[in-house]
């Protein structure tokens, strides 16, 4: 009699998984779901910041073209930020619905405004931009006032700022004399230190 081999279908047999494999499978599923949520939240943050950027587009179009101080730029870093200038930017809060307008100062980061309203945030950023433009104008005016306006005035200020020999300014010979005196004192100090060491 010939013996027939009975081949069992692997699908009919229950698969025995170890508890570790089952736990790894569950963990991978949870990680995938969490990653999907993180991507969705990040996309929601970027979308909200784009809404604010659109609300501010008219404001930034009105800025004079020679002003490179202010620029409404969305960076896709972590977290995404809407940069107003090098000091101020808007990020989304932890709830991903609240706009946070932050300004870096020498004393640390200041929260200028937190709100869920695009209109409120756009209004506050507009005020900030206006203040920055006024600061820029004042700085430019003070530079104009401090700078000589004509080449003749420039020559006069250079002559006035130059010390004269009769006004008690330090001349070249005085500096040379001080330098030579320093060398003599240094050599004398080394000589006396050498004598002390030899006498021991």
Order of helices and strands: HEEEEEHHH
Note the total helix count.
4
* Rg calculated over all Cα atoms: 37 Å
Q: Tell me the total number of β-strands.
A: 5
* N-end to C-end Cα span: 117 Å
Sheet with the most strands: spatial strand order: 1-2-3-4-5
Helix and strand content put the structural class at alpha+beta
Give the helix level as a range of percent.
Answer: 55-70%
Q: How much of the residues is beta strand, in percent? A: 5-15%
* Largest sheet features: 5 strands, antiparallel
What is the 3D shape? flat
Q: Quick check: average pLDDT?
A: 81
Low-confidence stretches: none
Set out the fold topology:
Blueprint: H1 19-61, E1 73-75, E2 81-83, E3 88-92, E4 99-105, E5 108-115, H2 118-146, H3 151-161, H4 172-199
Antiparallel strand pairs: 1-2, 2-3, 3-4, 4-5
Helix pairs in contact: 1-2
Keywords: Membrane, Transmembrane, Transmembrane helix
Biased composition (Polar residues): 158-167
Transmembrane segments: 173-198
Description:
- The protein has helices spanning 19-61, 118-146, 151-161, 172-199, and strands at 73-75, 81-83, 88-92, 99-105, 108-115.
- The chain has 200 residues and is α+β, with helices and mostly antiparallel strands.
- It has a domain at 33-146.
- A five-stranded antiparallel beta sheet has the order 1-2-3-4-5.
What descriptors fit this protein?
flat; 4 helices; 5 strands; 200 residues; alpha+beta; 5-stranded antiparallel beta sheet
TL;DR of this structure?
The chain is of the alpha+beta class. It has a domain of about 110 residues. The protein is built from 4 helices and 5 strands, in the order αβββββααα.
